[in-house]
Design a protein that fits this description.
The structure is a homodimer.
Chain A lengths: L1 E8 L12 E8 L6 E10 L3 H4 L21 E8 L9 E4 L6 E5 L4 E2 L17 H14 L6 E4 L5 H12 L3 E6 L2 H9 L4 E4 L6 H8 L4 E6 L3 H10 E9 L20 H4 L3 E4 L9 H13 L7 E5 L4 H7 L8 E5 L2
Parallel strand pairs in A: 8-9, 8-11, 9-10, 11-12, 12-13, 14-15
Antiparallel strand pairs in A: 1-2, 3-4, 3-6, 3-15, 4-5, 5-7
Helix pairs in contact in A: 2-3, 2-8, 5-6
Keywords (chains A, B): Oxidoreductase
Pfam families (chains A, B): ADH_N_2 (PF16884), ADH_zinc_N (PF00107)
Organism (chains A, B): Sandaracinobacter neustonicus
């Protein structure tokens, strides 16, 4: 019998989550039955969208249940297998995160492709869901053209840092925001044209306008709130606003003020389109080939912020909302 | 020498325009020079977008100038011509509205096609700019499919009444709002499934939700404000929000509150896209053929609200903002 520690949702947060909303539990795992596999997780992912699943309301993914283990992306290694498709040592991607180990049907797991020089946890970041989110949202909705100006909020996060670099590869001028001078320095070192610390800038609108006085053609929104207003203000006619996330609003306990300049959407013929990465799942192979190629050519860099051990998973998650990560936020489990 | 009366912009309104912002002037017209034509206007159009041209700010059309004649769509009859392309009696469409007569180069005029059973002023409404706005916005951005539910605000106006009927032709269930019981009755008589008086409904959200409990696939927005919030609330995944106008905001003197539920755009993967009808000018011929066919088959009805005489043009325009029109608002000039 193997034991695993896992994180349960203890109660539903109102506002920003705290330690009190999570509980560490130890469970015993049976041996895998026919068609099942025992997996030891190596890394688990925490992502802003998970906050939405802590509300009890209908959404594109079902809500987490109080008293039950949380779910999320994880990469792990097969320990023992009763599924002929898997053998010990295989690396797999799953949605069985927030635990150290688990038993699951092999059909619920995705075997990871081997890409030279890419560590396994990259399949939770640049080559995984956040990378696909960046690549598909930017190319399928933002439609950047050579010479366009692209504005990215949350530019040093897992999604934003990929968006900013892909836009550079596509021949765009890129302006990105982040919340610390270190993140701004990282963006500059990655070749981003204009990086702005939105917390220290006297005026976000002024700082972005100074950087790109002719306005923006594409806005990739991870943040919402004031950033979205700035994007609407500086949008050029026919600009595309890719609505990927609005982390500024996720912990709001009252209705949030909407953008006061939404009317520009008519006068400037703007397109504002939201998406959930699962709608682009069919592009996964194309994405991994293209992104894998860029990584091997040294055209894409990424950062990771790693918390150690399952007990730190709630801290890692809570840290997303104060911007304590540069790049992908991960929890190392083994 | 011919004289013409015309309307000048006397001063720029802040808030809702009043009589005091307009001035009636009489001018003398020269005989047409080579390439020019003398036209007597029969009908002129007043449209909500003209309010935007009364602000002194950059936009997709240049602002009106104080002390100068206002411009706008008009249909007229050629009186005398020095352009071989035109002869007396020809009917023409132009942007030389807000005056009884004018001299202009023939190249600035568009000769009207004759469509059996269609009066000349229809080229300012159902077969003109408002009709093209409705048809192109709905088909090119809204992309309604058979069985979809379409929500239209300003449903009894020139654009909205065309949208609602085209959506019915496309096989959709249609819910439309208007501001008087008479307009609601007209919408019902035109075969619209659900017509709601948004001024007397205790709750706009409740009324629309009761009418279409499964939610909406397309929203055609002429109004903005609360209607847009309701549309975001009731939108189904992948719904399209066609942003044609936001008349609720046009006379605002302070920044308007934005939709507080804009975050749905991410979670429901919504597309919200604004447009100006000129971008679809290339579809004019296709539009007139299709719409002309529907009119002749009796599938499309329209209403006109007609003010008499150039001196009444400001009243007609001001009336747009209190909803004093059913269907196309026109001024009869001759």
């Amino acid at each position: 019998m193997t034991t695993s520690r896992e994180i349960h949702l203890k109660s539903r947060p109102a506002g920003t989550p705290t330690q009190a909303h999570f509980e560490l539990a130890t469970v015993e795992l049976p041996a895998p039955s026919a068609g099942e596999v025992l997996v030891k997780n190596l890394y688990m992912s925490v992502d802003p969208y998970m906050r939405g699943r802590m509300y009890d309301r209908p959404s594109y993914v079902p809500p987490f249940q109080v008293g039950e283990v949380l779910q999320g992306g994880a990469v792990g290694e097969v320990v023992s297998s009763n599924d002929p498709g898997f053998k010990p040592g295989d690396l797999v991607n799953s949605m069985f995160g927030w635990r150290e180990a688990y038993v699951a049907p092999g059909s619920a797991l995705q075997k990871l492709p081997a890409i030279e020089g890419v560590p396994v946890q990259a399949f939770l970041g640049i080559l995984g869901m956040p990378g696909l989110t960046a690549w598909s949202g930017l190319t399928q909705i933002g439609e950047p053209k050579d010479g366009d100006t692209v504005f990215v909020s949350g530019g040093a996060g897992a999604v934003g840092s990929a968006v900013a670099q892909i836009a550079k590869i596509k021949g765009c001028t890129v302006v990105a925001t982040a919340g610390t001078d270190e993140k701004v320095a990282w963006l500059r070192s990655a070749g981003i044209d204009h990086a702005i610390n939105y917390k220290s800038a006297p005026s976000l609108l002024g700082a972005v306008r100074d950087a790109v006085p002719k306005g923006i053609d594409v806005y990739f929104d991870n943040v919402g709130g004031e950033h979205l207003e700035v994007a609407l203000e500086l949008a050029r006619p026919f600009a595309r606003l890719v609505e990927c996330g609005m982390i500024a609003n996720y912990n709001a306990t009252e209705p949030v003020e909407g953008p006061r300049n939404i009317m520009y959407i008519v006068g400037k013929s703007l397109k504002m389109q939201g998406f959930i990465v699962t709608q682009f799942a069919g592009l996964q192979t194309q994405f991994q080939a293209e992104m894998g190629g860029w990584i091997q050519q040294g055209k894409i860099r990424w950062e990771e912020t790693i918390f150690d051990g399952i007990a730190k998973a709630p801290d890692a998650f809570i840290g997303l909302f104060s911007g304590s990560n540069t790049g992908k936020m991960l929890v190392k489990l083994a």
